[in-house]
Task: structure prediction
Amino acid sequence: MSSDSLFRAPVPLAVALRPTSVDEVIGQDHVLSAGSPLRMLADPEREGPGSSVILWGPPGTGKTTLASVIARSSGRKFVELSAVTAGVKDVRDVMSDARVEGELSGRAPVLFLDEIHRFSKAQQDALLPGVENGLVVLIAATTENPSFSVISPLLSRSLLITLKPLGPDHIRDVLDRAVADPRGLAGAFTLDDDAREDLVRIAGGDARKALTALEASAAVASAGGVSTIDPEHVALAVDRALVRYDSGGDQHYDVISAFIKSVRGSDADAALHYLARMIEAGEDPRFIARRLIILASEDIGLADPQALTLAVSAAQAVALIGMPEGRIPLAEATVYLALAPKSNSAYVGINEAQRDIREGRSGEVPAPLRDAHYPGSSSLGHGQGYRYPHDDAAGIVPQSYAPDTLLDAHYYRPVPRGLERELQERSRHIRDILRGNTD
Result:
């Protein structure tokens, strides 16, 4: 095959190289060992309807590949539906055809349903009778946690199998096979070692992404009249590493969680990584800014009050200038918050105070603190005995402000970090004055 003829192939490289048997699958050894449910399902000698399966994993880990090779290896008819385009009627039509197929061949067909998390409850309900009665062997694929996206009756009738991102060695094997395989580049190109490592890095555990990038890199090399793919060809073909991230799915929650925990943990470098990951994936910068404001209040608080001011300023800057320049104030706020001293004392304090209120610990407002400005209030004792703090040289006077039932409540407990180191001593001194302990 010449290098030019490759790019007139009717299907993408990732499709052309799709394995035709379980033994050709690279990676996922933890679910393809001898005796595993997927191996047994692929066994053509195995009798019975077979267990339905839900494959959960990130893109490019082989969900569609596994479904097709299981159907091919088992000798079952393979029917594919996409939750993006299929409706309830399509599901019912498949079930009707499956009943006929089962009667003719004695084996239930494999129904592969891609992106099952996009199916509504009604659409998933339509699958239940066929799965429950063994009319089809359902192999459903999802990139989202099935516990949240698949109805319980369907989940309980299926085996949940978690697929992992492919490791670097797996991606290298995928690339080397693609270069040599007659269905792929068929030896028409040589892959430079550094270029291979660049493709491994770009793939991020996604075999499909690796093959797509390889195909594009080969096209660049071919256009230049050379047969060795080097890092420059990869750089020209892939101008940015597409980030595996679904703003509405698990990756959204996982990455923002890692971002917040990295800032809370004072790791500025990790925080910037996750910030970049969200920005490259097109996350709403206003969402990121709001989370930074919350974090500044919850995790830094009075250890560095400037953190909240900076986070709010970053949010306002993003609203004013938009993206891509908005990434700069977001990065500035991220680094500052990561390096700031941490305290959650205000957060803990308000939580404990609200908990006491909910549990009925409120009590009466002390009479000296009650409003004494309306007619008749003085006859009720309102305001009597109140001591005006500004009349004292220290600006603080011994006086009870909390209800009697909460005199011993101690909600604000500053930490010995940042500004709160000073506030810790100050609050202790004030507490002594308020309670009359001036010795």
Remarks:
- The two ends are 95 Å apart (CA to CA).
- The beta strands are 52-56, 78-82, 110-114, 137-142, 158-162, 190-191, 228-229.
